[in-house]
Amino acid sequence: MTYQPEITDKEIASVKYHLSGHIGSNNRISVEDLTIAVYGAWSTNNKRKLRAVISHINMDDSDKCLILTDRSEGGYFLSGDDPDPALSFIAEEESQALNTLKKISSMRRKVRMLYGRGVIEKQYDGQGRLC
């Protein structure tokens, strides 16, 4: 299981506050500048925490705030009136997720080939039926 940092309401509010002036893809803020604005200093850990907070905000269906980025230009911005950046962001996220699933599937096949079928099945023995 991966580490999930504890996200506070103060961090959520701070991210939203510092992004409030960055609406639309032409008005983005760099990852470094947003990290410093939210946490007071740049560090790899603070950057990771910022990404976790942004993911948390974007996964909260009750929150109307949608924070976007793209892999080509970088930086964060709030969605504006144009849905195209949001649709592009979703497509990039879906592509990355599918590539990750392909990698995991290949790795499982390799584990079965190298160590036998039972190794993967043992991982799920304690789970039991879900339905």
Task: Chart the SSEs and their pairings.
Elements: H1 9-19, H2 31-39, H3 44-59, E1 67-68, E2 77-78, H4 84-115, H5 117-123
Antiparallel strand pairs: 1-2
Helix pairs in contact: 4-5
What does it look like?
- The protein is mainly alpha-helical and 131 residues long.
- It is 57% helix and 3% strand.
- The chain contains five helices and two strands; from the N terminus they run αααββαα.
- The chain has helices at residues 9-19, 31-39, 44-59, 84-115, 117-123, and strands at 67-68, 77-78.
- The chain has a two-stranded antiparallel sheet with strand order 1-2.
- Strand 1 and strand 2 (77-78) form a beta hairpin.
Order of strands, widest sheet: 1-2
Number of domains: 1
SSE order in H/E notation?
HHHEEHH
Kindly name the structural category: mainly alpha
Please report which band the strand proportion falls in: under 5%, 5-15%, 15-25%, 25-35%, 35-45% or over 45%: under 5%
Number of strands: 2
Quick recap:
The protein has 131 residues and is mainly alpha-helical.
Key terms for this structure?
131 residues, 3% strand, Arc Repressor Mutant, subunit A, 57% helix, 2 strands, mainly alpha, 5 helices, elongated
